[in-house]
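In this supplementary section we document a worked example of the pipeline. Step one takes a protein sequence of length 154 as its only input; no multiple sequence alignment statistics are reported here. Step two produces a three-dimensional model, which step three serialises into structure tokens for compact storage. The input and output of this example are shown verbatim.
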Amino acid sequence: MTEKGTLETLEIERILQLLPHRYPFLLVDRIIEVDGDDSAVGIKNVTFNEPHFTGHFPGNPVMPGVLIIEAMAQTAGAIVLHKMGAKETALVFFMTIDNAKFRKPVVPGDRLEIHVRKQKQRGGIFKFGCQAIVDGAKVAEAEVQAMVTLADAA
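The serialised model returned by step three reads:
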């Protein structure tokens, strides 16, 4: 939380400062309800013109599950780096993905909400519980673990 007790919002300009990802692999448009590196809600506006829909699947576009997981990891990584202050160049690397479940397809026109909550931190290693929600319904969930490292050390 900020000093006044209100939750922060990270607009796309800040996300671009924090994450090295760019189109077509940046999968978070905005991050709202940021509470330090404890929790946040990432927003991904799913649009038909994204390149993966040409092949997944023609005539029945569905967002690949691996991209939903990646959106979860990007949301979690961005709030960790934001809390660090992004004073130094850092990278976030996936370590594990556990208990991934996909419950409903995500399709163009959906507003994907990626809810992340820190479960554990040990040094530069973070574990987040994540849920993806569309129109109030859980469409996916997973636990992701990642390591934050200085870019020069990578």
